[in-house]
Please model this.
Amino acid sequence: MKKMFLTTLAMVSALAFADVADAAERNPFGLVYRGAITENAKNKVHIHPVTYTLNGLKIAANVYTPAEYDATRKYPAVVVAHPNGGVKEQVAGLYAQRLAENGYVTIAADASYQGASEGTPRNVDKPRYRTEDIHGMADYISSYPGVDANRLGVLGICGGGGYTLNAAKSDKRFKAVATLSMFNSGQVRRNGYMNTQLDSVQTRLQEASDARAREIATGEISYSGNVDFDALTDESIRKIPTDLYREGMIYYGQTHRHPNSTFRYTTSSLMDLMSWDATDQIELINVPLLLIAGEKADSLYMSEDAFRKATGTGDKELFKIPGATHIQTYFVDEYVALAISRLKEFYGKNL
Model:
């Protein structure tokens, strides 16, 4: 069954996504999702590449404005946080564009130390930075011409979903909080995906501590999660046992590949990640909450856990997309349409 699925997905990739294989080079905005904006045409959604400073670092972002946008009017806005290893030109951009098509001003930014944003060493992945990135997007978009800062929502995708939950605990500017295929980075880095590394927690913490010691003593930066996308083969992908990582290799390494996107992160980041959890004090979220996840996703347990623990709001929903896996919510047209339809209703009611 897995072999058949992989073959089918490869065929779909070759046919449906042939036009995005080198889209980062051909698209003037670097976007790699199907249906991406290639020019700011009249009466269409426009994209505006912007930069701003957050904690001394220049952050690279894209702002999407609705068709017939008028800066003298007031629009609701949505902050969109990208997945771990992802960049603004992939799924975060797709959802930002789709929401702009429905009347929202949206922003998707590369995380600090990642993508086109500044920060060294590269690919630091610490919860406090990723959370601050979401606060920073809110800072910027709240003062963008035409935005009604009192109607601000947030959408976090995969790892960005976990960090969105964390940001929303304290950032009461967000009047509506949503996640898509939420990934609790702290829990997974600590316990392993689907709790498969519980017996090695202390060993991995020691490795992270040693990596930090080397950084301080010698300047040497150690990385975890290194993947050579050029070395990926159908056979090697087929052997990956979980849907999330197997399909993720295809999405990030083949069909939606982007030069700024990488799975790697500094090993020393694990000191912060493994002692953190997206659901700690989640009851502080007291505004409407929508968790969207694929019904068939092997990551669904993380959204279910967050939903159960989010006791601070009486207005919450776990919306399962029928038939979808985690990665399929990123690009499969019918699943994206279902997610956008639900988000449109959710933000329309609460913003």
Residues 1-19 have pLDDT under 50 and may be disordered. The longest strand covers residues 147-157. Residues 2-350 form a domain with the Rossmann fold fold (CATH 3.40.50.1820). The chain has twelve helices and ten strands.
